[in-house]
Amino acid sequence: MLPSQISVNISFFQPSAFMMIGIPGLETVHGWISIPFSSMYTVALTGNFLILLAVKRTPSLHQPMYYFLSMLALTDVGLTLSTLPTTLAVLWFDHRLIGFNACLVQMFFLHSFSVVESSVLLAMSFDRFVAISNPLRYAAVLTNNVIIRIGLVIVARATMSLFPVPFLLKRLNFCPGKILLSHSFCFHADVMKRACADITVNILYGLYVVLSTVGVDSLLIVMSYTLILHTVMGLASPRERLRALNTCVSHILAVLVFYIPVIGVSMIHRFGRHLPHIVHALVAYVYLVVPPVLNPIIYSVKSKPIREAMIKVLKAKG
Questions:
Q1: What is the rounded average pLDDT of the residues 127-140?
Q2: Which residue intervals define the domain G-protein coupled receptors family 1 profile in the entry (predicted)?
C-alpha cells in the first residue's frame, strides 16, 4: 500500500501560485494602460459610494426603489474591489503571482458579486413592476422587512451557488507547466482549464450556476418588463404611459450594461477558442469593470432625485 500511496502523492500537483497577465501583447505599455484602468476604478468607487451616501443622508430617498439602487451600488463596490488589487498590481508593478488559495478566494468573491448583481437587477425589475401595476399598494408590498429579506435571500443564493466551486477546483490535479492565467484576476473558466484532469464536473456545475442564476434572472426580468409594458399600454393618457416608462429607463440601461458583457464572456469562453487572447482579456475587463463605472453615471443622469442628492453630498464634503 505504501508505494502506491507515494506514487499518488507524487502524481497529484497543485501550484503554489498562478502567473497572471495584464493585456496579452501589450505588456510593454502596461504603465500607460494603467492610467485608464485606474481612472475607471476611481470613477466606479467614487460614484457608487456617492450613491450610498446620497441615499443614506436624504430622507426622501428612503424608498424601495432607492434601497435596491443602494444594493446595486454596494454590489458594484464589491465587484470592483474583487479585481482592483491584482489588476493594478500587474499593470503598475508587474507583480504577476497570486497564491493558489488566494486565487480561489478572489474567484469566489468575483463570481459571487456577479450573481448578486444579477439578482439585484431582478429585484429592481420586480420593484418597477409593483410600482407601475399597483402603485397604491407599492409601499405596503415592499416594506422595509420585505426588502431586508430580499437582500438576505440574494446574498444566500449567491453564497450557496458559488461555495462548492473552489472545492471542486481543489480536487483537481494541475499541470506543473500550466500556471499562466489569461487575465489579471482569477476567472473560473480560466483556472479550471489549467488542470491536467477531467474537468467535466466543473464545466457542468459552472453551467448549472450560470443557468440557474443569471439565466433564470434574465428570463424573469424579460417577463417583468412584458407585464410592465402590458400595464403601461392599458393607461389611457399617452403622457401617463411616457411617465411610467421613463421610470424604467435607468434600470433597463443597467440591465443591458450588465447582461450584454455576460453573454459576450459566456460565448467567447465556450465558442471563441480560436480568437486572439487579447479579445478574451478585453471582453472580461468590459464584463467586470464597465458596469460598476456606468451604473452611477446612468442613475445620476437619468434620475433627478439621485443627481440632486449626490450634488448635496459633494457640496457638504466641500
A1: 91
A2: 47-299
Q: 3-class SS at 99?
A: strand
| Whole-Å CA distances, 8 to 1, 2, 11, 100, 152 | 11, 10, 5, 20, 43
* Length of the chain counted residue by residue: 318
Whole-number percent of the chain with pLDDT over 70: 96
Would the pLDDT of 8 be above 80?
no
DSSP class per residue in 268-314: HHHH-TTS-HHHHHHHHHHHHHHHHHHHHHHHHHH-HHHHHHHHHHH
Taking each helix axis as running N to C, give the angle between helix 216-233 and helix 100-133, from 0 to 180 degrees, rounded to the nearest 10.
20
Non-local (6+) Cβ contacts of 94 within 8 A are 30
User: If you write DSSP's letter for every residue of 164-182 in order, what string do you get?
Assistant: HHHHHHHTSPBPTT--B-S
Query: Which one, of 111, 139, 124, 20, lies nearest residue 66 by Cα?
Result: 124
| Distance separating alpha carbons of residues 13 and 7, to the nearest angstrom | 12
CB contact at 8 A, 218 and 263: no
Residue 264 exposed, middle or buried by CB count within 10 Å (0-12, 13-18, 19+): middle
How remote is the C-alpha of 135 from its chain's centroid?
A: 30
Q: Assess whether pLDDT exceeds 90 at residue 63.
A: yes
- At what angle are helices 277-302 and 30-57 packed, to 10 degrees? 30
Cα Rg for the chain, rounded, in angstroms? 22
Grid coordinates in use for 82? 474583487
183: left (phi over 0), alpha (psi -120 to 50) or beta: beta
